[in-house]
Specification:
Elements: E1 4-7, E2 14-17, H1 27-40, E3 42-45, H2 52-59, E4 85-88, H3 102-107, E5 124-133, E6 141-145, H4 146-151, H5 155-161, E7 165-168, H6 170-175, H7 184-189, E8 193-196, E9 198-200, E10 207-209, E11 215-218, H8 223-237, E12 243-246, E13 253-257, E14 261-265, E15 276-283
Parallel strand pairs: 2-3
Antiparallel strand pairs: 1-2, 3-13, 4-15, 5-13, 5-15, 6-12, 6-14, 7-8, 7-11, 9-10
């Protein structure tokens, strides 16, 4: 296949043209996509809706997929393949979830700025979100550029945060919304994880912030001061000048690099419209979290 790139902005966001997710991916096209992601960090491939098998096969060209898809483990009937994450407001019979459904309450956390799987021992590299059904209005996805946000920080702030380590937990972000309905098994599956607040993005060699609403504290820092610092950094990183807003079309596949971006879902009328999105998550293979015995403390 012959693929080409159209930039959506000079440095953040691109459209990849000429890629069909239903066909095998040749090495040169794969390398073009990787190069595009290293430079632009977020990209869209437009097309038609594809099968779960085709989406999974395409994603596996870029690395191993997440082995733990879905935080909720108890009394949840899967609607999709175990290789995909169900980012929708639909149940296993494709009916719109009730407003008090545990799955919907958990998924409300996707409206917080976050980084996929930063709370897992193996974190996410690429997220590949494919649209099967979208609301007629709203429901966009926003992605922010954490490399540009880091570059824009004052020198003294860069020095202050350069060696700091943050504690990530999925239960932190959900607690922000008042959702704490997790079983002991779910808690045991995902203990807190430590990660640097600043890292070097492997694909570009650029320094980047590594942020998420999953951060509950900063190691060796008073809880209040650490949380305020993270809040300040997230407000800085999500200024409009760093944000790409994706307006969905059915058949779009939006790819973002979790190693140097955050993202969030925008609201829509969940009681009336279906939003059926399916995510394949390619995991990092060369970066381990920072081990620290204090990580199991309150986050």
């Amino acid at each position: 296949m012959s693929a080409s790139i159209t930039a959506l902005t000079p440095a953040f966001g691109a459209e990849i043209i000429g890629v069909d997710l239903t066909l095998p991916l040749d090495a040169s096209t794969r390398d073009l996509i990787v190069d595009t992601m290293n430079h632009f960090a977020v990209a869209v491939i437009r097309g038609v809706t594809v099968s779960q098998d085709d989406q999974v096969a395409f994603a596996k060209n870029f690395g191993p997929l997440d082995a733990i898809n879905g935080v909720l483990q108890t009394d949840i009937k899967r609607r999709l393949s175990a290789d995909l994450v169900d980012i929708s407001n639909m149940d296993e019979q494709s009916n719109i979830l009730e407003l008090d459904d545990r799955r919907r309450l958990f998924n409300l956390g996707n409206r917080l700025w976050h980084t996929d799987s930063s709370f897992k021992r193996i974190a996410a590299k690429y997220s590949m979100l494919h649209a099967h059904a979208i609301p007629p209005v709203a429901g966009e996805t926003q992605v922010c550029d954490l490399r540009a946000a880091y570059d824009d920080l004052p020198k003294d702030m860069k020095e202050q945060i350069g060696d700091l380590v943050a504690v990530h937990s999925i239960f932190t972000s959900r607690a922000l919304l008042g959702f704490d309905n997790f079983s002991p098994e779910e808690h045991a599956l995902l203990p807190p994880i430590c990660r640097p607040l600043v890292r070097v993005h492997p694909g570009s060699g650029r320094k980047t912030l590594y942020l998420a609403s999953h951060i509950g504290r900063i190691l060796d820092c008073p809880v209040a001061e650490g949380r305020l610092l993270v809040r300040d950094l997230m407000e800085h990183a999500t200024q409009p000048k760093f944000v790409y807003t994706h307006h969905w079309r059915i058949g779009d596949t939006l790819i973002w690099d979790n190693r140097c971006t955050m993202h969030r879902a925008m609201p829509f009328d969940e009681s009336r419209f279906k939003r059926d999105m399916r995510r394949a998550t390619v995991m990092e293979t060369d970066v381990a979290p920072v081990d620290d015995q204090n990580a199991v403390a309150t986050v």
